[in-house]
Write a structure and sequence with these properties.
Elements: E1 6-7, E2 10-11, E3 43-49, H1 51-57, E4 62-68, E5 82-86, H2 95-108, E6 116-120, E7 133-134, E8 138-139, H3 140-156, E9 165-170, H4 172-183, E10 191-194, E11 225-229, E12 232-236, H5 237-247, H6 253-261, H7 283-288, H8 294-300, H9 302-308, E13 313-318, H10 326-338, E14 344-348, H11 368-383
Parallel strand pairs: 5-6, 5-9, 9-10, 10-13, 13-14
Antiparallel strand pairs: 1-2, 3-4, 4-6, 7-8, 11-12
Helix pairs in contact: 8-9, 8-10
Length: 391
Amino acid sequence: MRGGLVASGLVFGILAGLLSGIPQAVSQESPARAAVPVNVEGIELFEIESKLLTEFWGRPMVIQAGVVLPLGHDASRHDTPVCYSIHGFGGSHQEAWGAGARLRTAMSTREYPEMLYVYLNAQFPMGHHEFADSVNNGPWGKALTTEFIPQLEAKYGAAATSTGRFLTGHSSGGWSSLWLQVNYPEYFGGVWSTAPDSVDFRDFTGINVYSFENAYVDPQGTEIPLVRQGEKWVMILKTYAQQEYAKSDYGGQFASFDAVFSPRAADGRPMKLFDRETGKIDRETAEAWRKYDISLILKNDWDRLGPLLSGKLHIYMGTLDTYRLEGALKLMKADLEAIQSDAEILLVEGRDHGTLFRSHPELWPEGMLPHIHKAMRASWDRHLNTTQLVP
């Protein structure tokens, strides 16, 4: 869902409210190159043209990131771990310029773990593309792992090993980072996913995709609430979805999910999970969503994935998430505990989509992001003395 990142001492912004000014016709062009902020020493734009995405779309397509370098970084050493961070819906790689100066100062004084901090751009005309291969958006996951990351690591002297590649992200970026770790379990060395979009489609923002007939009311006929402030519900799902749809029939949050998870309709557009006027769920589309249900993937393929993901899964969520995303994570947590996974899944009492980042006296006294980044660096340090690093 919509979301940016906030941490103690590192403010990345919370993105909220409905998008405005979305174009009225679907564009198949490359994501627009947003104006890069004034260059700051040690914060660079890195982008490549993706052959895979260009072939899919039939026109040049780029993958972008903002890269924050440690002071005095020596790219010739090829021994620096990388934190790949993915923004929430409505964000972009420009978070690198908002956070970079403070990160570099903190790293220079050894107050913060020294790594390459790479802020990936998942912004797309049809919404957040989630770095998932999609029949509508194209092979973003494959392009990231086979084209973009190898070139970035070569240029900036990254360690270029699985044990030195870490993922994090918030909201839609939380879902994306978890998706990448689960689908490329030997390529990445760990994920710290925060407030991810629904990871189990038995509770997709309050909808059981597989059994409900309607996205606006539950089987008892009660309207499904979506947005809360504290413990008070302030908007039902119907209102949220219809307000987005009134602005544009694509590019909004729910249309973004359709673009990633749904088959392509006869008119060339993504099939809708539910009718925006009536809320009726399309059963064919709902069944097609199963291949993007992360909890289902883990449960069905645990014999293979379990050993590959050992020690790598870390997911944090507030019990009062603003967009009720905690319900899906509770279902995943129960399933993973049943199959004896060692995944770290924390449901933080009383926290919402944004306050999750604030310092917590027991879990992260310095703030959640410093906790995450230090855990990444500690994981890398544990592997420095291994006899062979896995590429």
